Amino acid sequence: MKTRLACLLGAALLSSAFAAHAADKPKELSIGISTFLSGSASVFGVPARDAADILIADINAAGGIDGVQLKPSYIDEGGGGEKLLAEYRRLAEGGTRVMLSAISSGHCNIVAPVAEDLKVLNVLWDCGTEKALEGKKYKYVVRTQANATTEMVAQVLYLMKVKPDFKTLAIVNQDYAWGRDSRDIFLAALKKFKPDVKIVAEMFPKFGAADFSTEISRLQALKPDVILSTSWGGDLDNFVRQASQRNLFKNSTFVLSLAESSLERLGGSLPEGVYVGARGDHYFLHPETKDDAQHQAFIKKFHDKTGAYPIYSVYHMVQAIHGLKAGYEKAIKDNNGAWPTPEQVAAAMHHVDFKGFGRELKLQRADGQALEAQLFGVTKKSDKYPFKVLSDITIIPAELVTPGVEDTSMDWIANKLKPEVLNSDQIKVYKN
Question: Which of 108, 148, 149, 116 is nearest to 132 (CA)?
């Protein structure tokens, strides 16, 4: 009788403990998402929000994460850093413990330490700056796509593959941190492969500039073999349209590192033969996933909702949400099926592999930096679309162009990046 009572009491206690723990599972998971909903950057901030709406609706329709529905709250990064932080703190103080933030590199640099202070799981979902995580080992902050170093070093490899004999280069970048940092990384890597290249001009028009006549006139006089621009959004669109009107594309080969997001908007203004980057391993005509059923279903939903095709910010949002879901699922498994704390999810997200709509991404580093391959192509007319598409697509694995956890970008480029990487058989080219 004593033994039976002890067993019953133990079972009751276990049941009580389980019930108490189960009660900790929320009915919904609040997620704060910062993106540009106004200003020039809204051209890819709004599509990213639309992607989040689609993905979250699909996840919720399928039962959520372990039965928990996702509830997004959006913050407009167009209001500036101070307003972003105020809204960020307001959500955190209201109980939101998961954030996807941010697009702006400057905003990522300021939210990352705040997330650590507030003990909020923060996914850097789109910003490129390598400085956000380099030399740091945050507990609560991870990034689900590549950073500027991976992107720019891969861009150099691609340029050396497709146009190795150029002798002169000019740069036209936006005058703020991204424009100058991406210039520094690109040139440092280029010197490793082509030390005799001559940089004939470095121009940094004001961020948000509408008139590029001064820069174009100078480029027409210099006639560089290659013109590089890592600009994005309305600035890049305006530069391309004005350069096209003045026939600048006939004199030089253009390398536009972020122009995948501008292809549809530019339409006929962007000529054939321009080298374009996609800021990662994703493209709505990705040669490895263009026929994937899930990818095609997403493209259709996105096009039905927006009238446009997905661009890189859309795919970065996909990666962030898929990565977050993978992190929660791993944390739940590690927690013996119980709903995890933000700390447990953050820990799990330093040890997950997941997919967006490209190759698998690996998030297995102490610094929380994901490894993401890089896709490039050359613009070509299409019979199917009223804008240029990418042909002869090249995919460069992240492992070839990403510094280690203990490396700084410039030291890694100077001391560990070797010209022999150009001959790697891991670089895949899809001719079409």
Answer: 108
Rg of the chain in Å (alpha carbons): 23
Cα separation of 93 and 88, whole Å? Answer: 9
pLDDT score for 7? 45
Q: Which residue has the tokens 């998971």?
A: 29
Sort strands 141-143 and 275-277 into parallel, antiparallel or unpaired. Answer: unpaired
**Which residues, other chains included, contact 200 with Cβ-Cβ below 8 Å and sequence gap of 6+?**
168, 169, 170, 222, 224
Q: What is the 3-state secondary structure (H, E, C) of the chain?
A: CHHHHHHHHHHHHHHHHHHHHHCCCCCEEEEEEEECCCCCCHHHHHHHHHHHHHHHHHHHHCCCECCEEEEEEEEEHHHCHHHHHHHHHHHHHCCCCEEECCCCHHHHHHHHHHHHHHCCEEEECCCCCHHHCCCCCCCCEEECCCCHHHHHHHHHHHHHHHCCCCCEEEEECCCCHHHHHHHHHHHHHHHHHCCCCEEEEEECCCCCCCCCHHHHHHHHHHCCCEEEECCCHHHHHHHHHHHHHCCHHHCCEEEECCHHHHHHHHHHHCCCCCEEECCCCCCCCCCCCCCCHHHHHHHHHHHHHHCCCCCHHHHHHHHHHHHHHHHHHHHHHHCCCCCCCHHHHHHHCCCEEEECCCCEEEECCCCCECECCEEEEEEECCCCCCCCEEEEEEEECHHHCCCCCCCCHHHHHHHCCCHHHHHCCCCEEECC
Condensed to tens digits (0 to 9), the pLDDT of residues 346-358 reads: 999 999 999 999 9
Is the distance from CB of 259 to CB of 387 less than 8 angstroms?
A: no
| pLDDT < 70: residue spans in the chain | 1-23
Which residue in the block uniquely carries the two structure tokens 């609560």?
140
Residue 174 buriedness (CB in 10 A; 0-12 / 13-18 / 19+): buried
- Are 241 and 213 a contacting pair, CB within 8 Å? no
Strand-pair partners of 150 = none
Distance CA 351, CA 366 (A): 9
Torsion over CA: 131, 137, 141, 146 (sign): positive
| Structure token digits, residue 324 | 């977050």
Domains and CATH numbers, the chain: 28-146+291-363 (3.40.50.2300), 149-278+373-430 (3.40.50.2300)
